[in-house]
Design goal:
Layout (H helix, E strand, L loop, with lengths): L4 E7 L2 E8 L6 E5 L10 H7 L5 E5 L16 H15 L5 E6 L1 H12 L4 E7 L10 H5 L1 H9 L3 H4 L3 H4 L6 H17 L4 H12 L14 E6 L8 H9 L3 E6 L6 H4 L1 H13 L7 E2 L2
Helix pairs in contact: 2-3
Length: 284
């Protein structure tokens, strides 16, 4: 993995942080993380897939990583406008490929709708056009996930590891897969208030009726065993987006960057090479 340097840009009085690697003339690959996580949560993925022919940009959503906290409520569209500011500052003029995982994929949808000239393609991993379709396993685990959201103790977060990966994986396997993420979280500041703000922002997320306006190619990836966001969400995304390809990964849960990192790289490569979207495929 190429070395990362940290940069900052200010938008509406909020100082936003991002990390970047690669040359200024390279095509930009912008990575946006899921709920409660910073751009650094993509570093384990970068280390597993090896050097990339892109200018990689890791976005810290406001209130995560080194970005300043917001003191008032916001919507996911706000995070999309933040990401657009980062794109203008650190990604060059050419349209970027944007990868969003879970909540990051929701932000990516708003980014494509609000700033279409900045986007050359999207990868939406384990994401949704709305957040009210969750899995029964997530509902049963809601007390645990709430406890994890308000706790600063990473040991509590690791109790959610089994929920994030495929149900056939043992507790030790789940912990091993997500250990690099937990190590990063131990080092970074954590805000319970920001977790609340993100939860509220996600509760208002609705893009279903507007996704037909997204003109760029989109790779939609979902684990068939996702126990956080029902896989139905990705089927809806692929139907609403006019230029989408749906990839269904067997024996995979919600944590696709950690369970199946090469599948995300394959999707990025297809977008870079201009491969046309096809019908839904499965790796069964």
């Amino acid at each position: 993995m190429n070395s990362l340097s940290r940069q900052w840009v200010e938008r509406d009085g909020v100082r936003l942080s991002y990390q970047v690697s690669g040359g200024e003339g390279d095509c930009a690959l912008v990575m946006m993380a899921g709920y409660g996580r910073s751009g650094s949560s993509w570093i384990p993925w970068l280390e597993r897939v090896g050097p990339l022919p892109f200018r990689v940009v890791l976005v810290d959503h406001r209130g995560t990583g080194e970005s300043a906290r917001s003191l008032r409520p916001y919507k996911l569209a706000t995070l999309a406008d933040d990401a657009a500011a980062v794109l203008r500052d650190g990604a060059g003029d050419a349209p970027a490929i944007v990868v969003g995982d879970s909540m990051g994929g929701m932000v990516a949808q708003h980014l494509a709708l609000r700033h279409p000239r900045r986007i050359g393609g999207l990868v939406l991993s384990a994401s949704s056009a709305r957040v009210d379709v969750v899995s029964p396993a997530f509902v049963r685990s809601l007390p645990l996930t709430v406890a994890a959201a308000i706790s600063k103790d990473v040991r509590v977060w690791t109790m959610c590891d089994r929920l994030l990966v495929h149900e056939t994986k043992s507790p030790s396997h789940a912990h091993d897969l997500l250990a690099p993420l937990r190590q990063i979280q131990r080092r970074e500041p954590y805000s319970r208030f920001n977790s609340l703000l993100q939860s509220v922002a996600m509760s208002f997320h609705r893009t279903v009726r507007r996704l037909g306006a997204v003109g760029v190619p989109v790779e939609v990836i979902v684990g068939a065993g996702d126990r956080v966001l029902s896989p139905r969400n990705s089927h809806v995304l692929s139907k609403c987006l006019p230029n989408a390809r749906l990839t269904i990964l067997e024996d995979t849960g919600h944590a696709i960057p950690f369970e199946r990192p090469m599948e995300i790289l394959n999707a990025i490569t297809r977008l870079r090479d201009g491969s046309r979207p096809a019908e839904a495929r499965s790796d069964r």
